[in-house]
Amino acid sequence: MKTVDSFRIHNIKCWPEPFAALERGDKTCEVRKNDRNYRVGDVLVINEYYPDATFVTGCTLTMLVTHITTGFGLPGGLVVMSVRPVKLKDMRCESCGRLSHGYDDAHTHCEDCL
Ligand SMILES: [Zn+2]
Fold first, then answer.
1. CA of 5 to the centre of ligand 1 (A)
2. How far is the CA of 37 from the centre of ligand 1 (A)?
3. Ligand 1 centroid to 91 CA: how many Å?
4. Distance, CA 30 to ligand 1 centroid (Å)?
5. Which long-range contacts (CB under 8 A, 24 or more apart) does 24-29 make?
6. pLDDT tens digit string along 56-109?
7. Cα 64 to middle of ligand 1, angstroms
8. Residue 80, Cα to own-chain centre: how many angstroms?
9. I want to staple 19 with a disulfide (CB 3.0 to 4.6 A). Which of 27, 48, 84, 107 is the partner?
10. Domain 9-88 is of which CATH architecture?
């Protein structure tokens, strides 16, 4: 995976079954509509979600996007993201110094500086 200068954190929802598969490590991809301009190096904060109850359970997974596939017969606008667990740590925003998040050698910009 290439090193990224900055990345974004995407809060997304996920149904219980695929959430559990991600948590077990059986599922290592996410298929999504690319309405957020996902990029390699971005982080997905995946919130377990019961569609019938329309609430989140409070369980989350933090996954790093290591690869993105588009095309190959995928309907337009869909992406397949390869993901692996990652731990976020507190880091300063590169631009303004406000407390933000990072991982490994990557660092982020706060919402205001992106
Ligand atoms: Zn900032």
1. 14
2. 20
3. 11
4. 29
5. 25/85, 28/82, 28/83, 28/84, 29/80, 29/81, 29/82, 29/83
6. 788 999 999 999 999 888 988 899 999 999 998 888 888 898 888 888 767 677
7. 21
8. 12
9. 48
10. Roll (2.30)
Q: Read off the pTM.
A: 0.84
Give residue 97 CA to ligand 1 midpoint distance, Å: 6
Distance 9 CA to ligand 1 centre (A): 14
pLDDT tens string 20-64: 999 999 999 999 999 999 999 999 999 999 888 777 788 999 999
Report CA(2)–ligand 1 centroid distance (Å). 23
What integer pLDDT is reported at residue 84 of this predicted model? Answer: 96
Task: Pick the more confident residue, 78 or 5.
Answer: 78
Q: Residue 55 C-alpha to ligand 1 middle, in angstroms?
A: 31
